[in-house]
Amino acid sequence: MKLANIIPFSSSVTRISQIIMASGLCLFLGISTLQAQTNIPTTAEYVLVTEFETGRILMEKQKQAPMKPASMAKIITSYVVFSRIKDGSLALNDQIVVSEKAWKMGGSRSFLKPGTRYSVKELLYGVIVQSGNDAAVVLAEGLAGTEENFATEMNLTAQKLGMKNTNFTNATGWPDADLTTTAEDLNILATALIRDFPPETYPELYPIFKVKTYTLNDIKQGNRNPLLYGKSATENGVDGLKTGYTEESGYGLTASAEKNGMRVVMVLNGMKSKKERSSESARLMDFILREFKNYKFFASGTKVDEADVWLGRASKVGLVAEGDVSRVLSRAERMKTEIVVSWMNPVSAPIQKGQKIGELALRMDGKIVDKVALAADRDVAQLGMFDRLGAALSYLVLGASSMPDSQQ
Q: Which of 119, 78, 68, 73 lies closest to 98, judged by CA?
């Protein structure tokens, strides 16, 4: 008989605590199983608001219904250009000549001069800040030869990003019967752009989206994103992305904001006027950032609890979280959330540092919504043979009362 394997009793230890705030990194444990909790009325026809790190849906309305992106299609035009810069096949100072087709583009324009060369940087500012249709076509032709070829690249990129219900037909979002997308797909796109071109790595790319004005050919134009001005920018940390409007699509906005360590991505479309787009987007952004927060419970490696040890040279072993424990919750959800720690007690020695011993789960309304493994924080060796024999015999003769308090 191997006395080291004798376990006198096997009881599942479970401790339940109300929400505990602890320092730690803000990372996600897994895809949320909860549905969107925010269903406030909105005049927007299509809505999807998500938390950036986790992808958790915070608000939705017809997120998969077909809609027209209008100039929000320029986000993927920018994504394709950013990708070329990232892989080194394109530089911001590269020059592209303006074609007759680009010069004749209607709608919002950067007023480029035909036959003139402009840098990729100038054209990106023209597309993103000024929403210039002419600038978008110049970039498309410069990268793919024709706008039609560029649209093919746009769609290939969209497929790789997981945009399953989108078809682009041009670089601008110009009205076309075959042009279609969804709020969900635009949210995927905006999230990917921020994720794949982080400002700290590419300071000359995504930050263009928060530039308020840009002058090209002595013509100064303002960014049409209403959330870049006033409280939304100063207090809510709005830093992008793009507006859109056609008669068919209505007024739309894809926006992102970062506040108190939490970034949200918001897509709205189908509003009736610029004024409505401005007021409704500000109202919803204010509400989301006030109602939701990324609550940080435990950082990876934090000691959560202690387990009793059977036949070991130490009577206790610490239980540490194997991953960061945090979650995006509304205020109401926070009040209903419990942290549940469970393991089989006691743990038989020998124990190796990092050995999985138990589990920490976040529970809401009786349902587990996230969990992470708990591991031993150190090695615990077995008692010697005679000590193990003595401990086992004491237990068999005297029962649990013969064990140290730490092992009862």
A: 119
pTM: 0.80
**Would residue 302 be called left, alpha or beta, if left means φ above 0 and alpha means ψ between -120 and 50 degrees?**
beta
Cis peptide before 404 (omega within 30 of 0): no
How far apart are alpha carbons 264 and 255 in whole angstroms? 8
CATH homologous superfamily of 3-25+299-407 equals: D-Ala-D-Ala carboxypeptidase, C-terminal domain (2.60.410.10)
* Domain ranges (residues) in the chain: 3-25+299-407, 46-292
Q: Does domain 46-292 correspond to CATH entry 3.40.710.10?
A: yes
Residues with Cβ within 8 Å of residue 167, at least 6 apart in sequence: 155, 178, 179, 180, 181
One pLDDT digit (tens) per residue for the chain, 408 residues: 222 223 233 344 555 443 333 322 222 333 333 344 456 799 999 999 999 998 999 999 999 999 999 999 999 999 999 999 999 999 999 999 999 999 999 999 999 999 999 999 999 999 999 999 999 999 999 999 999 999 999 999 999 999 999 999 999 999 999 999 999 999 999 999 999 999 999 999 999 999 999 999 999 999 999 999 988 888 999 999 999 999 999 999 999 999 988 999 999 999 999 999 999 999 999 999 999 988 888 888 889 899 999 888 888 999 999 887 888 888 888 888 888 898 998 898 999 999 999 999 888 888 888 889 999 999 999 876 655 566 666 655 555 444 444 344
User: Which residues belong to the active site?
Assistant: 71, 74, 131
**Cα(110)–Cα(97) distance, integer angstroms:** 14
Q: Which of 54, 283, 58, 62 is nearest to 184 (CA)?
A: 62
